Amino acid sequence: MRMDPALPPRRPGLLGMLRSNFLAGLVVVAPIGITVWLIWTLTGWMDSWVLPMVPPRWRPENYIGIPLRGVGVVFFLLFTVLIGWVAKGWVGRALLRTGERIVARMPIVRSVYGAVKQIAETILSQDEARFDRACMIEYPRKGLWALGFVAGPAKGELVSRTADDLIAVFVPTTPNPTSGFLIYVPASDVTILSMSVEDAAKLIISAGLVYPAQSSKTTPREDRAGDRNG
Known about the structure:
Order of helices and strands: HHHHHEEHEEEHH
Strand order of the largest sheet: 4-3-2-1-5
Number of strands: 5
Helix content: 40-55%
Largest sheet: 5 strands, antiparallel
């Protein structure tokens, strides 16, 4: 039986071209629009929270007659910088210690304050108390790989109770990386990745849809935490 020659590719119609152009434009416009909307919304929320505490004579809108969005953000930043400057001084440290002693006597408040303070110090600290690198471990069973963050080597009682060289790995959940599991894994079973912690977080938040650009050709087992520590 004789086969018909291959037909030339069919050109898309007008609706197909419009649909393709619309999707291409949506890919460009959506991230920008969502970002602008989030900034606009957060700015308005902060203005509504901060401006009522600002004296009327300090508000620019009372002099120019036009409400300015973002004035509350500026006042909040200036106030935060001022508090930080005072807290670094001798008087500020003394007041802070006095306030913490008062809070420590309140059963429920001290628990909430302590947890929030520890989280804030961990996230905003400028020292090395942060996730080191992105990694992969076989979790929850052999053959299944989970993306995680290296928190550091095990310390204290965790070292004396085990014979292995353990590493603390935080395995976040998708799409909320602030929750997850803290797992202590033998260093030889941790595969260190070349991607940054930020790129790994994007990969987790996007549920595997946003992949970082591959900077080097590595195999999954090329870089081991045990080799790095050893």
